[in-house]
Design goal:
Largest sheet: none
Structural class: mainly alpha
Order of helices and strands: HHHHHHHH
Radius of gyration: 24 Å
Helix content: over 70%
Length: 267
């Protein structure tokens, strides 16, 4: 609510007192060190997205499946986390980070290939929508008072744990379709919240002197692809429903046309 009140107050002030609009997006509350660190983190995230796109492209050419991506991600991420962040280990950690980013691309590649084969138009919409959601929630975290959203960590982790327990229970009691809907839309909300939480954690870690752009960018990369995958599935399902309604309408129109033709022939 504080973020919304801040937006309303700044918007009202700009109309009544001519306050400059750039105050709305001012990061003056962040120290120069934090601002510099955030620039490094988002630049590293951009590189990671490029590497992930390369992973999708390699998967399309070679047919590498999700299994290889899962192995690469599960090996490279803990390995990178176990290596201390220092100038001497920077090259090694960068290689592990690049492996994790490319593996993330391999993980999402089958879904991207399905979208390209069935509804290619939704792919760009999903990416643009994910970027928009990511930017908005990141701005909410950066423009809100410090530590305001750190409590979300426990809440979001609890929701994910609940989803995991529900998935295990579905193997014994059924209800997989309902669980899929809950994970799809609930997961979209949860990982949008993680963008806010992780962004504020990055700021607090930097203020405490813990600067690790690779680790911070990796956290945001996981959030980005979690949102992207769910949003892409939602858009593909909506496109499929639209196509189905269109086919049903064409079939009904064709049936009416055949009936009229039959009547005319009999006359």
């Amino acid at each position: 609510m504080d973020f919304i009140d801040r937006l309303s107050g700044l918007a009202g002030g700009s109309m009544s007192r001519g306050a400059p609009a750039q105050k709305l997006f001012s990061l003056a509350d962040l120290s120069p060190a934090v601002q510099t660190h955030l620039q490094e983190v988002y630049l590293t995230l951009a590189v990671a997205l490029f590497l992930s796109a390369g992973g999708v492209y390699v998967s399309a050419l070679t047919g590498f499946a999700q299994g290889l991506g899962m192995i690469g991600f599960l090996v490279s991420v803990p390995w990178m986390m176990s290596v201390p962040a220092s100038p001497g280990t920077l090259r090694k950690r960068r290689m592990l980070f690049g492996t994790a980013a490319a593996s993330q691309g391999l993980l999402v590649a089958p879904l991207v290939r399905s979208a390209l084969a069935l509804h290619p138009g939704v792919l760009f919409t999903a990416f643009a929508g994910t970027a928009g959601v990511f930017a908005c929630f990141s701005a909410a975290a950066l423009l809100s008072p410090r530590r305001q959203y750190l409590y979300l960590g426990g809440l979001l982790s609890s929701v994910l744990s609940t989803f995991m327990l529900m998935r295990v229970a579905s193997f014994f009691f059924g209800g997989g379709a309902l669980l899929f809907e809950a994970e799809l839309y609930g997961g979209l909300a949860v990982f949008s919240g993680y963008v806010v939480y992780d962004t504020q954690v990055i700021v607090e870690r930097c203020e405490a002197g813990l600067k690790d752009p690779l680790r911070d960018a990796l956290d945001l990369l996981v959030d980005f692809f979690a949102i992207f995958a769910r949003l892409l599935v939602i858009l593909m399902r909506n496109a499929e429903k639209k196509d189905r309604r269109q086919r049903d309408g064409e079939e009904r129109d064709g049936g009416r046309q055949r009936q009229r033709t039959t009547r005319s022939y009999r006359m």
